[in-house]
């Protein structure tokens, strides 16, 4: 049994659950037949994507704000968020009738910005600044000090962690005997809160934190023994892409997490599409993380009772083309080439008739301009119906002496051209 006495004393989950009862929705814990069949176990989904603000973040924001003294709260509150914390914060500002200022990265999906303004109404002001959460957090904290307001952090505060932990309270109200619990990790508030509650009330449950490969802040912190600031991150899984986890959340997570699993962003995209097509569940990238990690544990969860937290559904429809593109590349079905066609009649026709397979499809074709009068190589995107067809495609290119470069295998070239 993991000893949680040194951290649980300051986390009153029962009181937080009562405090939140009239504000948050008790989200369903749903048995999922398709995932259970696929992994030969019993998979349950904790549907925080169905929460009032479409994510669990309202729990921590309201819990902290509602426990502040009235005179302190009336000075106004500030938050920094990639989207979901902002919406929970905005909802809480309107509910508590307090003025709030929200700092969000410039790259935040427009849908999340619109939702934040909708939930907060006249009680909030949105300021877009910086390229990452960490950038806008610096600006938000500076503004807070200058204005004499109160900062409501997205994860690194005991009251925030306490609120997020009520997800665990609800899970154990509905189900016992849980063998594995998969929790998405951004800054660590959800995993710290739920992890503490579960290890206290259900110590046999293995707690698996899940991060995107492009933003492994908790994984690196655990390896180094302290929080570290990542030099760069992939912002795609925006709800979980932070450069540095919290000091408080790290100290808790190093005690309650049994493992941290990294998941490729392309795998996350495939999971989003799978959930939509098979379950009619609209999950945002961070919301799909816990389910995307199941492949890595397929052998260990056979016959077990498994819970995955679907943390949010704030997914902008404008991102779907990118999600499909990343999924196809991850699944080995989409490939890009720079092809230098021989300057002779019939070269392109030969490529189409002899090099492409019967099920292969060209999804992009454009000549790259070399000079004002000449064209350079052609950028060609090819989609396969089966990833096994890739080897045959490459073999035919060699047989017909096609001069090509694979863009997928060159990150710099891919980022520049695609």
Describe the structure concisely.
The protein is 43% helix and 19% strand. It is α/β, with parallel strands linked by helices. Helix 14 packs across helix 15.
Describe the structure.
- The protein has 418 residues and is of the alpha/beta class.
- The protein is 43% helix and 19% strand.
- The protein is built from 19 helices and 14 strands.
- The chain has helices spanning 5-8, 13-20, 33-39, 57-66, 70-73, 84-96, 110-120, 133-147, 158-164, 166-174, 189-201, 217-224, 247-256, 265-279, 285-292, 320-330, 347-355, 389-399, 411-417, and strands spanning 29-32, 42-47, 77-80, 100-104, 124-128, 150-151, 180-184, 206-212, 259-263, 305-310, 334-340, 361-369, 375-383, 403-406.
- It has a six-stranded mixed sheet with strand order 1-2-10-7-8-9, sandwiched between helices. The protein has a four-stranded parallel sheet with strand order 5-4-3-6, with helices on both faces.
- A hairpin with a 5-residue loop joins β12 (361-369) and β13.
- The longest helix is centred in the middle third of the chain and has 15 residues, at 133-147.
- It starts with a helix and ends with a helix.
- The mean pLDDT is 92.
């Amino acid at each position: 049994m993991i000893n949680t006495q040194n951290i649980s004393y300051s986390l009153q989950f029962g009181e937080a659950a009562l405090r939140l009862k009239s504000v948050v929705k008790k989200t369903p814990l749903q048995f999922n037949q398709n995932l259970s069949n696929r992994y030969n176990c019993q998979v349950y989904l904790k549907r925080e994507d169905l929460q009032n603000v479409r994510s669990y973040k309202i729990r921590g924001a309201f819990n902290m704000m509602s426990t502040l003294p009235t005179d302190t709260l009336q000075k106004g509150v500030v938050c920094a968020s990639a989207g979901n914390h902002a919406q929970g914060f905005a909802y809480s500002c309107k509910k508590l009738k307090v003025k709030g200022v929200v700092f969000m990265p410039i790259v935040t999906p427009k849908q999340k910005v619109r939702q934040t303004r909708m939930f907060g109404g006249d009680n909030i002001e949105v300021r877009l600044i910086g390229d990452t959460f960490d950038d806008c957090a610096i600006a938000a904290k500076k503004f807070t000090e200058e204005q004499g307001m109160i900062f409501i952090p997205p994860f690194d505060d005991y009251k925030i962690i306490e609120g997020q932990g009520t997800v665990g309270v609800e899970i154990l109200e509905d189900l016992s005997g849980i063998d594995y619990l998969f929790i998405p990790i951004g800054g660590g508030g959800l995993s710290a809160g739920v992890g503490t509650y579960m290890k206290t009330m259900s110590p046999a449950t293995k707690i698996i934190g899940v991060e995107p490969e492009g933003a492994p802040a908790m994984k690196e912190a655990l390896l180094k023994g302290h929080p570290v600031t990542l030099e760069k991150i992939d912002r795609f899984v925006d709800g979980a892409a932070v450069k540095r986890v919290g000091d408080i959340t790290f100290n808790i997570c190093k005690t309650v997490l049994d493992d941290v699993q990294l998941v490729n962003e392309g795998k996350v995209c495939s999971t989003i599409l799978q959930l939509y097509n098979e379950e009619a569940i609209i999950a945002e990238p961070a919301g799909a993380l816990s389910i995307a990690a199941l492949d890595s544990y397929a052998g260990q969860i056979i016959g077990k009772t498994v819970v995955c937290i679907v943390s949010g559904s704030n997914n902008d429809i404008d991102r779907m083309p990118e999600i499909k593109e990343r999924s196809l590349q991850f699944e080995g079905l989409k490939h890009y080439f720079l092809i230098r066609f021989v300057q002779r009649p019939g070269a392109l026709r030969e490529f189409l008739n002899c090099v492409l397979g019967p099920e292969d499809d060209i999804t992009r074709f454009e000549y790259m301009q070399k000079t004002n009068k000449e064209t350079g190589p052609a950028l060609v995107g090819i989609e396969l119906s089966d990833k096994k067809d890739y080897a045959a495609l490459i073999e035919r290119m060699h047989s017909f002496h096609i001069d090509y470069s694979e863009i997928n295998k060159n990150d710099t070239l891919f980022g520049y051209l695609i």
